[in-house]
Amino acid sequence: MATKKKTPLRKCVITQEMKPKKELIRVVRSPEGEVFIDHTSKKSGRGAYISNDAVVIKEAQKKNALARHLKATVPDSIYEDLLKLSGESQP
């Protein structure tokens, strides 16, 4: 009898919704202090998950939420890359 594998859930730091890990984007602050997008979700460091939605990403940028969660300054290029991943370009 085959058992069904559990889908790992993570919470979006903006919407506070629990979603499957694959539906979220992980942003990481490495031990050296560098902030980057973790496409594999396996890099070491402090991570924050954000929904793959342009509205949520823009809200995170406006509130500076990722910087608070990661306890590091997040460059605008990270938000631009997140918007590209969500399928929307920044105006």
TrEMBL record:
- Residue ranges of every copy of the YlxR domain listed in the record: 10-82
According to the lineage, what is the superkingdom?
A: Bacteria
InterPro entries the UniProt entry points to: YlxR (IPR037465), YlxR-like_sf (IPR035931), YlxR_dom (IPR007393)
Name this protein carries in UniProt: YlxR family protein
Q: Which organism is it from?
A: Salipaludibacillus agaradhaerens (Bacillus agaradhaerens)
Specify the taxonomic lineage.
Answer: Bacteria, Bacillati, Bacillota, Bacilli, Bacillales
